[in-house]
Amino acid sequence: MWKTLTIGADTQVCNAPCLVKKIALYHTTATTADIYNEATSDKTAAKKVWTLGNTTSVLKDEIDFGDEGAFFYEGLYIDWNAGLILIVYKP
Hints:
globular, mainly beta, Jelly Rolls
């Protein structure tokens, strides 16, 4: 069963392998969120797999990995600048 989580700060979503169906960033001003395939806040540049970013005219950016999801084999950490982030995942 897919779980949902809404975050508003840097967050370790999974500290072990997990499947991710969707990650969405919402904010009323321009901001970014970096997605890492790692379980800790080390934020190794080589483990950054995606950056979400919105603008003042496009308030939402999202990644939809489809029904089967994407496998984050080390875990999932999100480095957030502002806004709200919705994650749909299976631990």
